[in-house]
Amino acid sequence: MAIALFSVIAFFSGPEGSAQVRPRRQDAPTATRPDTLVVSPPTDTANAQRRGDIETTINYKAKDSIRYDAVQQIMYLYGDAHIDYGEIALDAAYIQINWKTNIIDAEGMLDSAGVLQQKPLFKNGAETYQAERMSYNYKTKKGRVLGAVTTQGEGYIHAETIKRDNEGSIYGRHARYTTCDLEHPHFYIKATKMKVIPNDRVVAGPFHLVFADVPTPIGLPFGFFPSPRKRGSGIIIPTFGESAQQGFYLREGGFYWAMNDYMDMRITGDIFSLGGYGLRVQSNYTKRYKFNGNFSVSHTFIKASENIGAGATTDPVYNYRSDSRDIWISWSHSPITRPGKGQFSASVNAGSQFYNQRNSTSPQNALSPAFNSTVSYRKSSPNSPINYAVTISQSQTTRNQYNAEGEVVPVQQMSFTLPDFSFGVASQSPIEWFGGTLTGRWIEGIRIGYNLSARQYVTNSLSTGSGLGYPFSNRQGRDTIVAINGGNLSQIFRNARTSINHDIPITLGTLSLFKHFKLTPSVSYSESWFMKKFSYRNIPGSNMLAVDTTNGLHRAYQYQGGISLTTNLYGTAQIRGKKVEAIRHTITPNISYSFRPDFGRPEYGFYQRVQRDSLGNTQLLSRFQGLEGNVPGPGLSSAISFSINNNVEMKVKTDSAGVFKKVSLIDAFNLAGSYNMAADSFKLSNINVNLSTKLFNNVGVTLSGSFDPYQYVNGRRVNRYLVEDGGFRLARLMNLNFNTGFEFNQKARQQQTESGAAAPTNLPSLQRTLTAADYVDFNIPWTLSVDLTSNFTRDNLTDRLVNNATSAGINGSVTLTDKWAVNYTTSYDLKNRILSYTNIGITRDLHCWQMSIDWVPFGVLQRYSININAKSALLRDLRIRRSESATGRPF
User: Fold this and answer.
1) What is the pLDDT of residue 643?
2) By C-alpha distance, which of 45, 43, 54, 42 is closest to 13?
3) Residue 112 exposed, middle or buried by CB count within 10 Å (0-12, 13-18, 19+)
4) What pLDDT was estimated at residue 17?
5) pLDDT of residue 745
6) DSSP code string of 381-400
7) How many CB atoms lie within 10 A of CB 230?
8) pLDDT value of residue 338
9) CA–CA separation, 877 vs 253, rounded Å?
10) What pLDDT digit, counting tens, does each position of 161-198 carry?
11) Residues 6+ apart with CB under 8 A from 129
12) CA-based torsion, 536, 540, 541, 546: positive or negative
């Protein structure tokens, strides 16, 4: 077997000719001739002085043999023949190059079973053709292909005969257009004639659809299939369906507009036969290395209907007995981080009270009672300690409120921060202020910084209780939520909470004592300015208080100091076993002292003592009750705090000789508490304990609890230690939180992979609604994640721990075969013995199609949907969908 490689270089001069594509010569050798040919290199065509029709280098080779006919100037290549000519590449079993006619012929070879092998594969830039036989004129760039398969973008064109003109257009006879990459596709569009304009469009004559070789009556006189290399505008086909509340409907139909390389827009709408509609405008935008984002506005109108099916919920959220209009706005803007440049960002999710419950198909949005929005601008310089930020935020929460008839109705509480301004100076050493040089001395650990924040908090929840407004001395009032409209704006802004907060962080460095101890002193000072201040007075003959508001600039400040001492203790047990080498225990004790004055004293003016009832009992109330800011608490504090942190590790042998690794037995086991020497009673605080570890290197366990060292008599805490009763009971467990969970992923444990972030791009894209199939990896056999959470508190009357809540959750997936997969998520309330949100998804890979079933079997969000659609983005509107919601009827 001979392998040969030749390069023929010539130069082109004069205008191009008009030579036509010619069939292969009848007397030329065929691909089945024996491999006893003599290889003769070309003699004339390599002459650099001759100027011919070849524009660039032609590289060619063959695995079997190469023969050159010098008289006819024809090159014959046998066995795995290959040619490179500029952007053109050709592979085939047999290739013939005619230097006189400028024609390249190629064809496959029959094997012993009569199957055609090594079919000609022709590549011209991004275009690919595969055929039984082909002929190509490299001068006129025209060609003729028999039994061809060519790719155009995501589509494949099969045709009996394909011709290519000098402008690059392709003409196919008895053609099939499909996005299935199989030689025998599962489905296709069959047309008598077809024209392909590369990177632009595919135009077909009379055509019809064929599924699994079964012709369908679906067809049109002509077809138009865009296949641009760049994004293009086009019509979005709607989804058809039926709902009990909306009747028959068409959804998500509209137009996609590729505005430019930086922005696109999707305008879609819904229409319902029982009355109602929906409108949506979505847009993505981006600018390379600067920012990217997306924006959408949705509006739906659902006409009132008395036809609520049996068993349907009558909750106001899903009650359609009156017309409902809902709107939702989403905006996300993310800057690309650039040193020294300001960054503007936004995350907005706001709209009508029940929009997500009535319209969202996302469990996260449908179940969430609260949504937050933030728009901010921040800037910092790498060469300056100064930074600042301006933020506007909004939050909305659905909660229940009594109406005038005493009925509980859901209302929407809105809160705004307009604006939230912050200014900061990073901590610096005073030595730097005067141009000194830092050399690592302990005095350089003294650093001072400054932070300022100013905000105005506005809410439509007007407090009539112990917060802002009219507080009661011995009973709690109920907040009133008012509608946000022009008539209520003045009342809402009168109750706005405005504050300016100053904080001066001061670090005094760390001193080393006796090489093993670290002593750290600390001092802090903060101050808040308020625009109003309250004064209280008792209303004679009642247990109520009247509130007088004084407007102006009022300040509240606090300061404190302290010192802490810490060290590390290590203990190692040498095991030297077959697997375990040693176990090390690390203990980090810490003791600190802090002092803070009693800011509740009258000379500070932060608190007022008022009579709370007709019996003469008094109460200490803050004069900044309910305002945003840092108000110091009353009472003198002279406290000693203590904590002990523990960590246990094991040193084990690996399979490699002399190589060890560390395994954590206890990640953390911590105890903390404090003793306030200035308190008149209950000086010792509760002892907080938390434990975290990982069992079997995969099961995480977290325990946290609080122990009370004092006694309880008839459910009331008394100032006497529990240990004073004798025995070994030092403290009583008051609450316990337990959480455990493990996640298994067989594929991930066997092979760890790393993925990098995608490079910035200027090409935004509005994708279709994702289904379960988009998230399924059929290469992962199974995944399983289980979590268990439980919470206990002590009932002081019975002195028993009571289970407040216990729930277990499971989610994961199972790949039944290489085509079938099931994913699931559910949780179970073990205390109330009910299942909460449960979702089951089934996915079937149909090669060029995909099917997904999404099922919520019970609950308010009960629904199901079945989706079958083509995978290709070109034919993604070829889909079958059937669905039912919680407010609909089976159909």
Assistant:
1) 96
2) 54
3) exposed
4) 30
5) 63
6) -TT-SEEEEEEEEEEEEEEE
7) 9
8) 82
9) 10
10) 777 777 777 777 777 777 776 767 777 778 877 787 77
11) 120, 121, 122, 123, 145, 148, 149, 150, 162
12) negative
Give me Rg for the CA atoms of the chain: 39
Reference 498, options 466, 535, 458; nearest CA is 458
Q: Which residue has the higher pLDDT, 125 or 643?
A: 643
Higher pLDDT, 164 or 755: 164
CA angle 504, 508, 513 (to 5 degrees): 160
Summarised one tens digit per residue, pLDDT across range 41-75 is 443 333 333 445 556 777 888 888 889 888 888 98
DSSP 741-758: EEEEEHHHHH-----PPP
Rounded-to-integer distance, Cα 71 and Cα 62, Å: 21
Cβ-contact 555, 584 below 8 angstroms: no
Question: What is the enclosing helix (H) or strand (E) of 810?
Answer: strand 800-815
d(CA 814, CA 780): 8
- Check: CB of residue 679 under 8 Å from CB of residue 600: no
What whole-number distance in Å separates Cα of residue 616 and Cα of residue 543? Answer: 10
CB count within 10 Å of CB 748 equals 12
Label residues 645-683 b or e (16+ Cβ within 10 Å = b).
bbbbbbbbeeeeeeeeeeeeeebebbbbbbebeebeeee
Stretch among 112-116, 524-528, 821-825 having the lowest mean pLDDT = 112-116
How buried is 704 (Cβ within 10 angstroms: 0-12 exposed, 13-18 middle, 19+ buried)? middle
Question: Is residue 767 predicted with pLDDT exceeding 70?
Answer: no
Q: What angle do CA 643, 644, 649 make, to 5 degrees?
A: 150
Distances (CA, A) of 476 to 355, 509, 789: 33, 47, 33
**What does the pLDDT read at residue 882?**
42
Encoded tokens for 317: 């959220």
Per residue in 342-360, pLDDT tens? Answer: 899 999 988 887 777 666 6
